[in-house]
Amino acid sequence: MEKPFVLHMITPSPNVSPFDVNMAYDAGYDAVAAYTNITLDQVGALTQDAIFSRGPSGVKRTGIFIGGREIGMAADMLDAARLAMVPPFEVSVFADPSGAFTTAAAMVAAVERQLKRVHHCDLKGLEVLVLGGTGPVGTAAAVLASGAGAKVKIASHSSGSRARMSAQVANARYGASTEPVDASSEENKSAAISNMEVVMATAKAGVQVLSQQLMKQAPRLLVAADINAVPPAGIEGVGLMDDGVPVASGSGKAVGIGALAVGNIKYQVQHGLLEAMLRAEKPMYLDFRDAFALARKYVS
User: Fold this and answer.
1) SS3 for 258?
2) Tens digits of per-residue pLDDT, 272-283?
């Protein structure tokens, strides 16, 4: 009798995400075990508990998923799990804190698709503003857009210091090239958006970070993408299902991408990576870069 597929979900948060649990079962795992309030120094021991109990063949039917809220901590936990492996006792590990890696990958891939379809270009050399960019999705999206060649600005609607901190993390840890922007006032937002060609709104649910009035002050805008599915929209005038729908802007040629359009890609990416772990003959170590590669395939 074959051993069941088991996914061990590790998080520094008080609980694992119900969304991630559902995704794991839908992807084909037979059992999901949750480990909460885990500190970085506990990851190695948990990993070795998982790998040594099933034998070299059983580890192929075992996986580790890392959640939480901070992308830096998730990356550290992924590294700690990798270092704890003792081949041939080695399992696949997938980090996706708060769904940030798969959501950011889906958002940037969706933006690339509309740039190609509508404007016949890609992100290389474009001015990109990430509003609400200090959260996990925003920081990951900024890193991905920068890696695709964009000139990225990370904006905070609460304080310039938070924007500076996020930009420093993105640049130092992931080799991105981003700049901070203080978007804590309408005047600052107006100045920030004046030269932008792409805007990505990644603020928390129910927070509007860009009004239609400000959109009209964006003479170069090509694409506006929003991940907020809870009213009001993060970008006023962008509908939940929009995927290349024209949106009012100073350029007269901008299109919008809504939260559910991004979410559809995000779902496929997370599902695809979880399934890939089930099929893998060799261990996989998955983060936002793998999510982005798969998101690009889905939208192509």
Assistant:
1) coil
2) 999 999 999 899
